[in-house]
Write a structure and sequence with these properties.
It contains 5 helices and 4 strands, in the order ββββααααα. Strands 1-2 form a two-stranded antiparallel ribbon. β1 and β2 form a beta hairpin. The chain is elongated.
Length: about 180
């Protein structure tokens, strides 16, 4: 038998998926045996595949966690203290890890983007709710400038929360290049 990619090379190896003859240069060792490079690139790991239900869990948990983190930040972290900034980042790491576990430990980039978008959506929904409650529509335009000194530190806290969430979701994950 001759290798499919290298016709001048004799071989007795076959791909365990497509049964194409492969040589030691072409083979990739997998848990199910030896495969050719094309079959390895075709397959997607079960760790990356997520069901619609797992996405729904990630979205709903991310929205609730983002809003709860906003409430906690506004209640306990008024100011520029470095302790509150570190707490926001660590809280984000915890949220990212919780969403990852609740969604079945799916580590795809799509799940990470959905997680981040849902947490950011929860933050924005909480901000919109706060603005509607504390600044009615007629007062909002005139009072928004007065609220910027208070909102300034919160923007930084929430940005650190999102950064921590990304880090918590991908903590210890190594990607193939």
């Amino acid at each position: 038998m001759r290798c499919a990619a290298h016709p001048h090379t004799e071989t007795r190896l076959q791909c365990s998926q497509c049964e194409k003859p492969i040589c030691p240069k072409c083979m990739v060792t997998c848990p199910v045996g030896l495969k050719c490079k094309t079959c390895v690139n075709k397959t997607e790991s079960h760790v990356l595949k997520a069901s619609p239900m797992q996405y729904a869990v990630a979205i709903s948990l991310g929205m609730v966690a983002g809003a709860a983190a906003c409430w906690a930040t506004e209640s306990f972290a008024m100011g520029w203290s470095w302790i509150t900034l570190v707490a926001a980042y660590l809280g984000g790491m915890l949220i990212g890890k919780l969403i990852q576990r609740a969604s079945g430990n799916k580590l795809s980039r799509r799940m990470a983007v959905v997680t981040m978008a849902s947490v950011a959506g929860g933050i924005l929904a909480y901000w919109a709710y706060t603005m509607m409650v504390f600044f009615p529509p007629g007062v909002f335009l005139y009072s928004f400038d007065a609220s910027l000194p208070v909102m300034g530190p919160l923007w930084l806290h929430h940005a650190l929360l999102l950064g921590g969430c990304w880090h918590g979701f991908y903590q210890g994950v190594r990607f193939r290049s």
